[in-house]
């Protein structure tokens, strides 16, 4: 069986030209408000896809950013954007669920982001435990996810939303949880 947090699932999609919802100004504005200026601190974008969010963290907010994805085609696409004079984010092909995280460029991150990714993690508790190990005290975990029930019953994409039990798993055990809604999306800023 093909599971949804594996390269076997994602690589053919990226290699075949599949793309996902683009970042827009309202989402970027929310992210900027919650994360603040990076001032060279390390940030990690998990499931970076084509790298748009990681580039925003790196070039606009000033984080020293690493983007990781399980799909080699996604990582290649992300790296292909780095042509300007300023060095871009570091890109790595990493499975967040199984890879040795000590191989990442930094031992811990001030900001970890994860956009349209949590939905696909099969063992969400294990995934969140790995994220917690990578966050510095006082750091921020920024999660963007669809919420169930926001699309019409007839919408073929209605299964993309996470259900209340998955929201509970995501938001439990943090010292502070902030949430902001954007149409079908909810953005969470989670603090250890
Ligand atoms: C819906 S896409 C979102 C991509 C990007 N974050 C965006 O917002 O456009 C989900 C991404 O998660 C990545 N992914 C899925 N499972 C993963 C895993 N176990 N480790 C790392 N990345 C993973 C996929 O390859 C894919 O790029």
UniProtKB/TrEMBL annotation:
InterPro entries: Methyltransf_12, SAM-dependent_MTases_sf. One of its GO terms (biological process) is antibiotic biosynthetic process. Residues 44-141 form the Methyltransferase type domain. Gene3D superfamilies: Vaccinia Virus protein VP39. SUPFAM superfamilies: S-adenosyl-L-methionine-dependent methyltransferases. GO terms for molecular function: methyltransferase activity. This is Methyltransferase type 12 domain-containing protein. It comes from Streptomyces humidus.
């Amino acid at each position: 069986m093909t599971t949804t947090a594996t390269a076997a699932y994602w690589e053919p999609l990226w290699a075949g030209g599949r793309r996902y919802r683009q970042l827009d100004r309202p989402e970027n504005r929310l992210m900027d408000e919650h994360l603040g200026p990076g001032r060279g601190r390390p940030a990690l974008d998990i499931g970076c896809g084509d790298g748009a969010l990681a580039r925003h963290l790196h070039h606009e907010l000033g984080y020293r950013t690493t983007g990781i994805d399980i799909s080699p085609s996604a990582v290649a696409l992300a790296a292909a954007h780095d042509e300007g004079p300023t060095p871009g984010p570091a890109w790595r092909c990493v499975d967040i669920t199984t890879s040795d995280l000590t191989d990442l460029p930094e031992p811990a991150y001030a900001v970890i982001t994860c956009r349209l990714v949590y939905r696909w993690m099969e063992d969400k508790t294990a995934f969140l435990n790995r994220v917690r190990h990578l966050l510095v005290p006082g750091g921020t975990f920024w999660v963007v996810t669809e919420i169930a029930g926001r699309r019409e019953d007839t919408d073929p994409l209605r299964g993309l939303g996470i259900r209340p039990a998955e929201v509970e798993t995501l938001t439990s055990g943090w010292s502070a949880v902030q949430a902001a809604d954007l149409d079908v999306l909810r953005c969470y800023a989670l603090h250890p």
